[in-house]
Amino acid sequence: MDVEALKDTLPAPATEPSPAPRAKGMHWLVVVINCGMLTVGTTGGPLITRLYYSKGGHRQWLSSWIETAAWPLLLVIVVASYITRRARDPSAPLLLTRPRILLAAVPLGLAMGADNFLYAFGLSYLPVSTSAILISTQLAFTVFFAFLIVRQRLTASSLNAVALLTIGAVVLGLHASSDRPAGVSRGQYWLGFVLTLGAAALYGLMLPLVELTYKRAAAGGRVLTYALVIEVQLVMTFVATAFGTVGMVVNKDFQAIAREARAFELGEARYYTVLVWSAILWQFYFLGSVGVIFCVHTLLTGIIIAAFIPVTEVLAVVFLHEKFSSEKAIALVLSLWGLASYSYGEYTDAQASKKKPASPEPQAS
Length: 365
Known about the structure:
mainly alpha, 14 helices, Probable purine permease, purine nucleobase transmembrane transporter activity, EmrE-like, purine nucleoside transmembrane transporter activity
């Protein structure tokens, strides 16, 4: 549970021994799990949200609120971490995170709530294909803000991946305007276009800020553990849910849920099933994204999100019966090529760092 971060952004002192093989194995297990959750959330979240709208759902505040409504699931991890610490040390604190770091997570939670609303509102007027294309632009925002905020090093492989993914998104968007959903006016379509682009920009800013929060949490020689990351994520999702709750109360969405469920095209029971699975999938998305930031860095999170957008396109064809054009096939190839380029660059950098001899320590005077 208390897996430590093993990455360049949080280097260990030169006098410490290298992590044990067991610690490295646990670290990479956490990496795989979080990448898997991010992949499932990235592909499944937009699809089930669009299913809600296409089958009779109309509540944007409800749709945005449900994205973080599963935050109590994080309590299981926090409680398990606390029980484990208490078993080792009866005087262990209830929370690992310092109060000022938890306070810093509050504005991030408000930003997350606003981003959820922008995305949910935009998706109510756009098909999944168009929304996915616009959300892919968050990669460019992530690269820009990561360079400014956390000084993320840009390599040739990462820039090549960004270029390929961007070209794929452009190719995919050449005929996106012809995919306007039934019953959506031209004005509503472009409103959704602008709101979704705004959501991409805001999320691209949030990712580096989350990584910066982790750095602040690890300041002063403190160990950054996965349990601490979950505590920060718990505060963020709780605040985002509270933000959405206020909007639902003002918009009277709670009173409309039962009425909307009865009118849902797939039936009342499946209406609630869609909402529950939407909450679970979006929790996977947010938990996976912060986990990848913790284990690796911000840019990989953006790369994974962008790389699986074509997969979302294919799933939209299968489950939502959207058209699969030649542009989508080209975009799929370019996106997979971009992911392969980035992965190969990370592998070669890791191999080069292993071969580089360690610099000798200066002798004490």
